[in-house]
Amino acid sequence: MEHRRLGRSGLYVSEITYGNWLTHGELVARDTALACIQAALDAGVTTFDTADVYAQGAAEQVLGDALRTVRRSSVEIATKVCLPTGDGPNDRGLSRKHIMESCHASLRRLGTDYVDLYQAHRFDERTPLEESLIAFDDLVRQGKVLYLGVSEWTAPQIEAALRIAADLGLRSRIVANQPQYNMLWRVIEPQVLPLCEREGIGQVVFQPLAQGVLTGKYQPGRPLPANSRATSGGRAPRFISRVLGPVLLDRVQRLRPLADEAGLSMAQLAVAWTLQPDSVSSAIIGASRPDQVTENALAAGVRLPANLLAKIDEVLGDLIDRDSTKTAQMMSVKPEWNRPAP
């Protein structure tokens, strides 16, 4: 496992981050979740990502339990705040009240005195940005948070936060962004990536496998494989159904010879692809089985030649989405993905 700096901060993160969205506390049993985390540790993963909203706190609890016997300074724990964690009017957003209460609740569930990275899960239009940034800065001053990040913010939103933090003289600044990014969904490339590169903000990208579609296991004209996320319970099938289109599935199968050429599995190729830009610090993988963690972690340290990257673009062609206005939207099926496969 290799490590990269998180933007221009002094924090190093593993190239592969283990994340537990839609898995721990929801999709997989506790014992399997613990085994997946152990597989990540065995593979050299040191960075772990979760959120207070994942399984309404259960995901943080499982992660905390799994890491309780690990030397705290040997891992980097990231969590998030903003999305609804209850039915009350203050159980969501980036108000000072919700940030403070959510941070303390996350620390209790994770069983730690601090988190390495605390991220605004989405932008909050209802709360003055000054209020949110001061609250985050106070948590840093208190030692409960070491670094700050955002997730799925637009370039203007990130730019405004940086400007306000400087105007207020805050000690802490945004050093990380967690966007959705993969071979198909590249909406951060026109605006977000250039801004973050200028400002020293590292990318910790999620969904490098596009909900498993880029693994090639979903094939055109064939039944969905048993024991996959698309046929599981919970919310996973709803998200995966957004990216199951005949044309897309056909094109993904055409990537298989390119993976073979690189000596990689389809999943490893997809994860390695996201790690090619220097501005990407880490790629988040999830898993429902330990062997998936072991396989995907092998994408760390892989450098793909320019001609292979060009071939990937040629295969996917017009299916690639670079529309920057779709930042903060869930990846969804484009109309052309639903055309009958050739």
Automatic annotation (TrEMBL):
Example of a GO MF term: oxidoreductase activity
InterPro entries listed in its UniProt record: K_chnl_volt-dep_bsu_KCNAB-rel, NAD(P)_OxRdtase_dom_sf, NADP_OxRdtase_dom
Record carries keyword Metal-binding: no
Annotated GO CC locations: cytosol
Keyword NADP: yes
Keywords of the record: NADP, Oxidoreductase
UniProt domain NADP-dependent oxidoreductase: residue ranges: 15-315
Pfam families: Aldo_ket_red (PF00248)
SUPFAM superfamilies associated with the record: NAD(P)-linked oxidoreductase
Family label: Belongs to the shaker potassium channel beta subunit family.
PANTHER family, sorted: HYPERKINETIC, ISOFORM M (PTHR43150)
Protein name per its UniProtKB record: Aryl-alcohol dehydrogenase-like predicted oxidoreductase
Protein's organism: Actinoplanes campanulatus
Phylogenetic lineage: Bacteria, Bacillati, Actinomycetota, Actinomycetes, Micromonosporales
